Amino acid sequence: MALKGDTMDFFAITSKHIHALNSNEKDLYNHIIRNMEEVKKSTVRDLALKCYVSPATIIRFLRKIGFSGYSDFIAILKYTDINMVENQNPFVVSQEDYQIEYLKNIYESVRVLDQAKVDKIIQILERKPRIVIMARGLNKSVGHYFEYIFSGLGFDVIFPEDHYFRKMLLNGIHSNDLVFFLSYGGEDEELIWDIEQLNIKSKATVVSITSANNNPVQNMSHINLYVFADQIQFNDIDMTSRISMIGIIELIAYKYMERET
């Protein structure tokens, strides 16, 4: 078991094993990441029932990703959760230590990127759909970058920044459009309403990029990609890094470029 003094957490332990997981094991991994608060309170039987597998399958999976058993897994998961809470304001640690955590967040975001989901997005992009970007707050900065990159790739990109423009656009979404929702927390009520209306009015594919924690935007999307970052509030302003989100967008763009050359 990795102890607190080893500065190990769930992601540090599992990152070196993710490449060896099959699709079913990746589903288990994703379930754990997205439901950490629930899983840390669950017995092995509870988790097995949630994932529609046997307890023996859960134990084999945990050993494959670096744990000696279920109690080891839960202990590390609880410690990881404590770290996540403590890092709400990461600057209580030294800048040098924060730089390490900053890089780990980018590394983990790229490491757990689901290539099957990326391939689905690329397949849709190859049909040259209109791309619509939905974002609010600090995520709008990512939206501008997204718009710049994919406009440069030859796509028709629409980025309605204003609330009323987004509302009007929802009436003109086509079923072959590709709609990206950028929301780190995934709990923005206005964007949740937008997705609800979009799913009612069209059959457009909804892709979201959010944090790994279970959230409404993630659950209402056809395809969700998740990223990691330390949540930072300063003077009541959200300053959580969006660099991992930008990295995922770039990787999608680069993979598309690779296919097209």
Q: CATH architecture of the largest domain, please?
A: 3-Layer(aba) Sandwich
Oligomer: single chain
Widest beta sheet: strand line-up: 2-1-3-4-5
Tell me the number of strands: 7
CATH topology of the largest domain: Rossmann fold
Main structural class? alpha/beta
The radius of gyration over CA amounts to 19 Å
SSE ordering = HHHHHHHHEHEHEHEHEEEH
Strand-residue fraction?
A: 5-15%
Number of helices: 13
Shape: globular
How many domains? The number is 2
Query: Ends: how far apart?
Result: 47 Å
Residues in helices, as a percent range: 40-55%
Instruction: Average the pLDDT over all residues and give the rounded result.
Output: 86
Biggest sheet features: 5 strands, parallel
Q: Class of the largest domain in CATH? A: Alpha Beta
User: Which homologous superfamily in CATH is the superfamily of the largest domain?
Assistant: Glucose-6-phosphate isomerase like protein, domain 1
Keywords: DNA-binding, Transcription, Transcription regulation
Pfam families: HTH_6, SIS
Domain SIS: 121-261
Organism: Mesobacillus zeae
Walk me through what this model shows:
There is one protein chain. The chain has helices at residues 10-14, 23-34, 36-39, 44-51, 55-64, 70-86, 95-111, 115-125, 139-152, 163-169, 189-201, 216-219, 243-260, and strands at 131-135, 157-158, 178-182, 205-211, 223-227, 233-234, 237-238. 54% of the residues lie in helices and 11% in strands. The protein folds into two domains: 22-86, Orthogonal Bundle (Arc Repressor Mutant, subunit A), CATH 1.10.10.10; 114-260, Glucose-6-phosphate isomerase like protein, domain 1 (Rossmann fold, 3-Layer(aba) Sandwich). The strands form two sheets. It has a five-stranded parallel beta sheet with strand order 2-1-3-4-5, sandwiched between helices. Strands 6-7 form a two-stranded antiparallel ribbon. The relative contact order is 0.12. Helix 7 (95-111) runs parallel beside helix 13 (243-260). By secondary structure, the chain is of the alpha/beta class. It has 13 helices and seven strands. The radius of gyration is 19 Å and the shape is globular.
